[in-house]
Amino acid sequence: MNMRFIDLHCDTMTRKGDVPFADWTGHVTPDKLRRGGALAQCFALFILTREPELRKPDDMPPHAIFERCFEIYRRELGIHSQTLSSALSVADITANARRGYISSILTVEDAVALEGNLEYLDDWFAKGVRMATLLWNYENELGFPHSREAARMGLGLKPFGKDVVRRMNELGIIIDVSHLSDGGVRDVAELSRKPFVASHSCARALCDHSRCLSDDLLRLIGESGGVIGVNFFGIFLRRDSEVTLIEDIVRHVLHIRDKAGIGALAFGSDFDGISSRLEFDDYSGMPLLAAALERYLPPREMDMICSGNALRVMREVWGA
Ligand SMILES: [Zn+2]
Q1: pTM of the entire structure?
Q2: Superfamily of domain 5-318
Q3: Where are the domains of the chain?
Q4: How far is the CA of 301 from the centre of ligand 1 (A)?
Q5: What is the pLDDT of residues 144-185, one digit of tens each?
Q6: Distance 98 CA to ligand 1 centre (A)
């Protein structure tokens, strides 16, 4: 079966920066998306900052980093308009596919770029942002990241984080809890009136890393109607693994299906943000992953994990 994929997270735009796609040797390029069978790719503007304690007065402010990344994204979409077309709705994704284009979905990794201003969120939406992580691996104005320390891991959202959750619901921006503390995820589950996602996370029961999600949290995301995009980073799939093996991704998929249900599964490759060597190289190898999963999942479930579940969440959060 020739599957079409929706991948909920890659860091390509930030990682390659000003390097044109023609010279980019990373996991994701328009050509590799085409060869791999992409239906839609979420491109995160990753707001790469220093740890809060190490920030210097002349560092570029997070909001300016957002603007700079956004310009790179817009430029690339312009250059590759023969292949990629922006999608702001599920109707756009369908129309793009019909016309032979791969949909490009704009997302943000780390709402530190809001700098505590709720109005920036409206600007993001106007610019086409349709999903955002509340934070990355550092504390920000919204809350606290995952941690090995139980007390820190239990910390919930700050008041501004709760305001952002409510406003994202109103605007129709998908809330992404990857990188968040367990307490923060519970707060989102309680507050959000819409499905929410972990765009690029794996199962902690199979790989004991604080970036991975406990069975309870997997269940909460599933119950919200949201999805978990399985991350392809070796160290999130198997403890200390420097390679990404297809069989490890399959194990996480089957575990999440067991704990949160088949409706809670998607892919969140983290391409161009991960350093492990991949058994299937890069995006162009996605059909190899699908072929392995087909041995365990019937066609209807393959369709759900490859694109159907992600489309359902998008429809519910974005509207039509
Ligand atoms: Zn990430």
Answers
A1: 0.97
A2: Metal-dependent hydrolases (3.20.20.140)
A3: 5-318
A4: 26
A5: 999 999 999 999 999 999 999 999 999 999 999 999 999 999
A6: 31
